C-alpha cells in the first residue's frame, strides 16, 4: 500500500482501502471522496491530469452526494439575477474555484466542462482561482456545471468579490509570513557570517567557531523548513509526474547546501553556507512576491471597483416616499434617489435633476461629467453636487462594472504566444541546467577538487531560470493594469503582442471620430405633403432605430403607428404607416435619383412612388480627434497608414478625411463593403487595427487583426472588439500603441537580460570562480531586475521611457 493518497497526497491510515485504477496502476486513496473523484477523472478520459500536475489536489469532500444535492438551489432564477448575466441566448457566470493549485487543474476543469452539452466557452484563470463560463441555458443548467466541477474534486461557487478578496488576503498573509521569517533569520545569519569571515569578533577559537556554526544551523533550519516549503512541494510533484520545473534545481541547491553545511557543522570539517541558503530563499521569495503582486494588480483594480459599490439604494415608491433597499435587489423600471455626495448604486438614466458626476473609477478621467435629463449614469460613480432621480435600466449583474470585471477576467485567463514560448524554453532550460550541474560535479570530482559539491551548488543556483519565467507575465500584467487605469479595457492578453505589428489604422466615422450627437439643420420637402407631416413620419420611423442619427429626429407627441418595421444595417429603415410603405435612410437605400444639389444630405425619405424629402444632419467632431491624428503623423508612428471607412456620403467623408489628414477614405460603404475593405487590406499584407462603435461595425471589428470599440459602443460591438475604450478620449489610442510597444520592449529586455545573464554566469560557475553566496546574490538580483523592469510599465504616463 502507498504511504500517501494518490489524489490529495495526504497520509493513508492502515484501515484506508479505497483503490482506483489510474494510469494503468491500482492507486490507493484516503477516502471515498478521493476515490470517486479519481474514478470520475479516469472515466472522463482526463487521467493525463495526474501525469502533468505539479501540485497535489485538495482532499475531496466525503459527503459529495450531499453537496451535489445542495447545488440545485443555484438554478433558482431570482437567486441567479445577482451573478448570472445574459448575452442573447447565452448565460455567463464567474466562478470562484477552490482547490486549484497548478496549471493542470485549469486544464482538467476546462476539459471536464467542455464535455457538457450546451457549454459555449470556458476560461480558467489559475492565478486568480476563477473560471468564466458561458452556456446555453436551454441546454444545460448552472447546477449541472457546478456538479460537474464537484465531481472532479473542486468546489465552485458564483464569484463574490468580498469572499474572493478575503481568500486572496489570506494567501498574501501566508506569503508575507514566510518572507518575514526568511528576512529576519537572514539578517541574524549574515551578522554571524561577517564575524566569521572577517574576524570582527577577534581571534575565534575552534570551539567558538563551532558554536557559531551550530547557532547558524538553528537559525537557518526554520527558513529551509518553513519559508522554502513551497519550492520543495512544487519540485516533488513535478518529479513525481516525470517532468521538471524551475523549482527542481532550486530545491536541489537549497537542500544540498543545507545538508552539506549541517554535516560540516557536526563533523567540524568543511565550509558552511547557512547564510547563503537563507539569503537565497529570502531573495527568491522577494522576487516571487513581487511577481505575485504584479500578476494580481489588474485583477485587484477590477475587484476594487466592485468592492466600492454601494450596498443600499434610496428607492422612490409610487406614493413618493423613500425606502432604503439593497442595491442588488433593484429592478429595471424602478426610480431611485441619489443625493449629493452619494454613490450611484446601479446603471440608469436621469429622469429628474442636474449634477456633476465623477466617473474616474470607470474611465480614468477625473474631470466631473455633467449629467441631466436622459443622460446615462453608471453604478459606482459619485454624484458631486445636485440631487438626481434615476430610472434603473438594468439589474445589478448586467451593470457596466460587472461587464468590466468579466472582460478583465477573460484577459487574465488567456496566455499570449510569447508567454507560452517562454514557458516551453524554461522547461528545456531547466533540463539543461541539471545536465550541466551533473557534468560539472563529475568533472571536478574526477579532478579531485574537494569543492566539487559546492561548485555544483553554485551552478544550480546561478543558472536557475527564475528570471526567464518572470520575464513575460510580469510585463503583460503591468501593461494591462496601466491601460485599465487609463480607461482602456484589454479583453485578451495577446492583444498587446499583436499591437506591435499594427501598420494600418482604420476608423469608422459616425460615433467614433464624431460624437454621434446629431442635429437636424435643414429639411427639404419634395412632395405635396405638409412639412410637419413629413417630419412626423420620419420621427415615427426613427423611433425604432438605435443609430446615432436617429437622435436628430426629436420624438413627437402623436407618434404614428409603424408596422412591418425592418432595419437594414448600413442602409436605413422601412416601415408601413397607414398602409403606405416608407423607406428612410441613405440615398442608396431609398433607391431614387437624388437631385445633385441635395446629394450631400445624410438622410432621405421615400414612399413606394417617389422621393419625399431630404434631411440635412450635422455631427460634431470629437475634441480628441485632432490630437490623435497629430500624434499619428509624428515620427514615432511614421510606419502607420490611416483609413476612414464610413457608410456616410462621399462629400462628408472626403471633408472629414481632409480635415484630419487621413490618407485613405472609403465612403458610402455597407457593412459588407466595410468587411471587404478590411479583407483587401489584409490581403495586401497589412496588419489592421479597426476602431468602431455601432452594430454595423461588429463584422469589421471581428475580422480586423485587432479592434477597439469606443465607450459608447453597442454591446454587440464591444463583444466583437478586443479592446474597449471606456471613455471618449480618442487620443488614448496612441497611448495604447505606446504602452503595447513598451510592454513588448520590456519583454524583450527581460528575456535578453535573463538569457544573457545565464550565458555570462555559467562559465564562471562551472569554472569554480563563483562561490554559492555569489551565485545566490547574482540569481536573485537577476529576478528582481526583471520584475522591477516590468513594474516600470505601471508608472508610464505617455512620455518616452
Description:
The protein is α+β, with helices and mostly antiparallel strands. α16 packs parallel to α27. The protein folds into five domains: 1-120 and 136-154, no CATH class; 167-300 and 414-478 and 743-795, no CATH class; 312-396, Distorted Sandwich (Calcium-transporting ATPase, cytoplasmic transduction domain A); 489-514 and 622-728, Rossmann fold (3-Layer(aba) Sandwich), CATH 3.40.50; 519-618, 3-Layer(aba) Sandwich (Calcium-transporting ATPase, cytoplasmic domain N). Helices cover 48% and strands 17% of the residues. The model has no long low-confidence stretch (mean pLDDT 79). A hairpin with a 5-residue loop joins β8 and β9 (322-326). The strands form six sheets. Strands 17-29-28-27-18-25-26 form a seven-stranded mixed beta sheet, with helices on both faces. A six-stranded antiparallel beta sheet has the order 9-8-10-16-11-14, with no helix packed on it. A six-stranded antiparallel beta sheet has the order 19-24-23-22-21-20.
Q: What separation lies between the terminal Cα atoms?
A: 61 Å
The rough form would be described as elongated
| Strand content range | 15-25%
Structural class: alpha+beta
Summarize model confidence as the mean pLDDT.
79
In what order do the strands lie side by side in the largest sheet? 17-29-28-27-18-25-26
Instruction: Give me the Rg, rounded.
Output: 32 Å
Q: How much helical structure, as a percent, in the residues?
A: 40-55%
Largest sheet: 7 strands, mixed
Amino acid at each position: 500500500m502507498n504511504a500517501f493518497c494518490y489524489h490529495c497526497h495526504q497520509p493513508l491510515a492502515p484501515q484506508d482501502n479505497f483503490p482506483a485504477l489510474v494510469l494503468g496502476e491500482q492507486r490507493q486513496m484516503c477516502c471515498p471522496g478521493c476515490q470517486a473523484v479519481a474514478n470520475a477523472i479516469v472515466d472522463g478520459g482526463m487521467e493525463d491530469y495526474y501525469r502533468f500536475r505539479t501540485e497535489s489536489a485538495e482532499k475531496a469532500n466525503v459527503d459529495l452526494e450531499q453537496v451535489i444535492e445542495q447545488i440545485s438551489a443555484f438554478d433558482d432564477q431570482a437567486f441567479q439575477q445577482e451573478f448570472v448575466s445574459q448575452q442573447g441566448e447565452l448565460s455567463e457566470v464567474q466562478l470562484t474555484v477552490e482547490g486549484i493549485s497548478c496549471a493542470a487543474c485549469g486544464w482538467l476543469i476546462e476539459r471536464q466542462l467542455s464535455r457538457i452539452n450546451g457549454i459555449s466557452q470556458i476560461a480558467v484563470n489559475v492565478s486568480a482561482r476563477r473560471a468564466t463560463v458561458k452556456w446555453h441555458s436551454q441546454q444545460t443548467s448552472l447546477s449541472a456545471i457546478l456538479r460537474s466541477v464537484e465531481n472532479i474534486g473542486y468546489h465552485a461557487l458564483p464569484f463574490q468579490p468580498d469572499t474572493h478578496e478575503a481568500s486572496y488576503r489570506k494567501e498574501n498573509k501566508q506569503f508575507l509570513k514566510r518572507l518575514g521569517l526568511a528576512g529576519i533569520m537572514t539578517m541574524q545569519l549574515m551578522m554571524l557570517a561577517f564575524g566569521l569571515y572577517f574576524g570582527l569578533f577577534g581571534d575565534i577559537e575552534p570551539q567558538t567557531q563551532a558554536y557559531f556554526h551550530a547557532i547558524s544551523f538553528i537559525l537557518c533550519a526554520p527558513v529551509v523548513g518553513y519559508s522554502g516549503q513551497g519550492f520543495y512541494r512544487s519540485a516533488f510533484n513535478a518529479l513525481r509526474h516525470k517532468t521538471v520545473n524551475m523549482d527542481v534545481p532550486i530545491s536541489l541547491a537549497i537542500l544540498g547546501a543545507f545538508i552539506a553545511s549541517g554535516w560540516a557543522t557536526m563533523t567540524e570539517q568543511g565550509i558552511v553556507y547557512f547564510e547563503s541558503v537563507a539569503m537565497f530563499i529570502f531573495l527568491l521569495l522577494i522576487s516571487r512576491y513581487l511577481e505575485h503582486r504584479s500578476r494580481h494588480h489588474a485583477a485587484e483594480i477590477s475587484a476594487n471597483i466592485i468592492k466600492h459599490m454601494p450596498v443600499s439604494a434610496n428607492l422612490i415608491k409610487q406614493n413618493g416616499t423613500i425606502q432604503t433597499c439593497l442595491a442588488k435587489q433593484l429592478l429595471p423600471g424602478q426610480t431611485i434617489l441619489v443625493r449629493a455626495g452619494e454613490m450611484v448604486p446601479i446603471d440608469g438614466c436621469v429622469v429628474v435633476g442636474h449634477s456633476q458626476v465623477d466617473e474616474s473609477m470607470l474611465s480614468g478621467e477625473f474631470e466631473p461629467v455633467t449629467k441631466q435629463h436622459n443622460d446615462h449614469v453608471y453604478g459606482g460613480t459619485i454624484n458631486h453636487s445636485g440631487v438626481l432621480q434615476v430610472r434603473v435600466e438594468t439589474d445589478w449583474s448586467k451593470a457596466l462594472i460587472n461587464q468590466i470585471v468579466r472582460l478583465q477576467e477573460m484577459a487574465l485567463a488567456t496566455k499570449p504566444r510569447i508567454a507560452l514560448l517562454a514557458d516551453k524554453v524554461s522547461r528545456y532550460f531547466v533540463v539543461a541546467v541539471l545536465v550541466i550541474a551533473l557534468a560539472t560535479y563529475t568533472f571536478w570530482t574526477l579532478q579531485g577538487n574537494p569543492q566539487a559539491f559546492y561548485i555544483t551548488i553554485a551552478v544550480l543556483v546561478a543558472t536557475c531560470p527564475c528570471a526567464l519565467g518572470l520575464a513575460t507575465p510580469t510585463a503583460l500584467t503591468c501593461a494591462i493594469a496601466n491601460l485599465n487605469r487609463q480607461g482602456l479595457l484589454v479583453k485578451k492578453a495577446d492583444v498587446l503582442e499583436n499591437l506591435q505589428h499594427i501598420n494600418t489604422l482604420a476608423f469608422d466615422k459616425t460615433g467614433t471620430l464624431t460624437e454621434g450627437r446629431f442635429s437636424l439643420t435643414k429639411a427639404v420637402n419634395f412632395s405635396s405633403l405638409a412639412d410637419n407631416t413629413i417630419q412626423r413620419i420620419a420621427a415615427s420611423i426613427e423611433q425604432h432605430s438605435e443609430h446615432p442619427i436617429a437622435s436628430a429626429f426629436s420624438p413627437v407627441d402623436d407618434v404614428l403607428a409603424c408596422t412591418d418595421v425592418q432595419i437594414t444595417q448600413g442602409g436605413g429603415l422601412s416601415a408601413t404607416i397607414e398602409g403606405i410603405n416608407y423607406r428612410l435612410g441613405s440615398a442608396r437605400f431609398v433607391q431614387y435619383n437624388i437631385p445633385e444639389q441635395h446629394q450631400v444630405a445624410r438622410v432621405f425619405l421615400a414612399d413606394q412612388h417617389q422621393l419625399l424629402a431630404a434631411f440635412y444632419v450635422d455631427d460634431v467632431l470629437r475634441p480628441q480627434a485632432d490630437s490623435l491624428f497629430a500624434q499619428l503623423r509624428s515620427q514615432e508612428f511614421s510606419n502607420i497608414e490611416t483609413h476612414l471607412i464610413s457608410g456616410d456620403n462621399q462629400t462628408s467623408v472626403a471633408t472629414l478625411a481632409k480635415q484630419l489628414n487621413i490618407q485613405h477614405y472609403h465612403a458610402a460603404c455597407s457593412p459588407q463593403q466595410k468587411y471587404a475593405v478590411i479583407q483587401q487590406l489584409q490581403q495586401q499584407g497589412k496588419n489592421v487595427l479597426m476602431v468602431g462603435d455601432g452594430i454595423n461595425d461588429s463584422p469589421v471589428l471581428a475580422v480586423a487583426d485587432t479592434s477597439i470599440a469606443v465607450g459608447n459602443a453597442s454591446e454587440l460591438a464591444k463583444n466583437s472588439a478586443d479592446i474597449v475604450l471606456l471613455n471618449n478620449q480618442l487620443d488614448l489610442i496612441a497611448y495604447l500603441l505606446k504602452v503595447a510597444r513598451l510592454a513588448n520592449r520590456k519583454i524583450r529586455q527581460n528575456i535578453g537580460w535573463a538569457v544573457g545573464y545565464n550565458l555570462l554566469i555559467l562559465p564562471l560557475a562551472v569554472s569554480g570562480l563563483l562561490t554559492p553566496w555569489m551565485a545566490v546574490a547574482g540569481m536573485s538580483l537577476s529576478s528582481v531586475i526583471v520584475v522591477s523592469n516590468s513594474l516600470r510599465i505601471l508608472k508610464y504616463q505617455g512620455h518616452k521611457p
